[in-house]
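hiii, so i know i said id send this last week but things got crazy w the move. better late than never?? heres the sequnce for the chain we talked about at the cafe, plus the structure i predicted for it. fair warning i was half asleep when i ran it
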Amino acid sequence: MPSVGELAAQLIESTEPSEERVLSKATALMDNSPYGPRPEFSGSGDFYTELKHRVNEFVSEPTRAAKARRALHRKAAVLFTWAAGSWYLLMFQSHTWWLAVLWVVSLALAIAGIGFSVVHDANHGAWSANPRANRAMRWAFDLIGGSSYVWRMKHNVLHHTYTNVAGIDDDIEVLPLARFAPEQPRRWFHRFQHIYLWPMYGLVALKWHTSGDFESLIGGHICETPIAWPKGKDLAGFWIGKAAFFTWSLFIPLMFHAWWQVVVIYAVGSFVLGQTMTVTFQLAHCVEEAEFPSRAQLHEQGKVDWARHQVETTVDFAQRNPFLTYYMGGLNFQIEHHLFTKVCHTHYPSIAPIVREVCEKYGVHYSAHPTIWKAISSHTRWLYRMGHQEMAPAS
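okay and structure toks below
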């Protein structure tokens, strides 16, 4: 059975020394957690073996692969043009308050689209067959306010290995503000989280821009996993990215507009960006149909089938909505993404039937909401349930 580090190596483009250091830190998880011992996963088995064979055979067909990659790169050009155009119109053509709101909402949606369709693929090594191109494109995440270095640790390694496992998957660790998993402690105010979390999702981008990355690096850990300060190119990219983001989003606007106008517009844009990105990711995992196995449960199983775990803790939505699929960068096909992170997202709609068929063959539960509204309703019910249900008993 491969170690956690070997399994995670399949999920992250670990061709640089800095990424090797991140990967080594991911294997140093504490075993004295209140959530239970660290689970171990197996990256083999008949289910995953057949699934990989069929999907890899499909996506590697030369004509199909080239077409998917061209579509990916055309989309990147469209999104960057959309963002640049929206920023220009916001800066120099916003002569009324409603035009300013229109252009900042357009800019926020364009930035979210870049996050979904460009930097997400690039951080996974899926935007290009050339590793250097992926490394170049992932810096776009730094330019839009995040940190590609911290993201690769939080998302590529922890979330994609320990999906929906309380205490390790940082994507579901928002305590004490919210309770997303049965193993997390419930506070009295969580009974209202299905109401108050929706507007608070809009504050997530503001945290990314300011304190979020620094909290992880200064604290030296993400959940229980140690993380070191970046070095070399990663360190330079971190600081240059932060400086570049605040230059185009605040400093240049302050040269042409009143400070209070800049603050208001920045707040509106951050809110729309936070809402769009957070809700998209929540609909794939924090819903009724997704499983939230405890660390103790996984530990008792011994060799846990990683691929089965990914499918059963993830839910697709709106698979037949081409507009959402295009804009969200295929993130409504989260099951396919979790199984094949290095396959570019323009393949997801085509490989989904293959994944579903193999899941049915091996008795793996595959879930998909037919529309985004069904997914939103399921997320709301899950928030309500977690706000009222007592903490799961320890195994």
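btw The chain has 17 helices and six strands. thought thatd interest u
miss u guys!!
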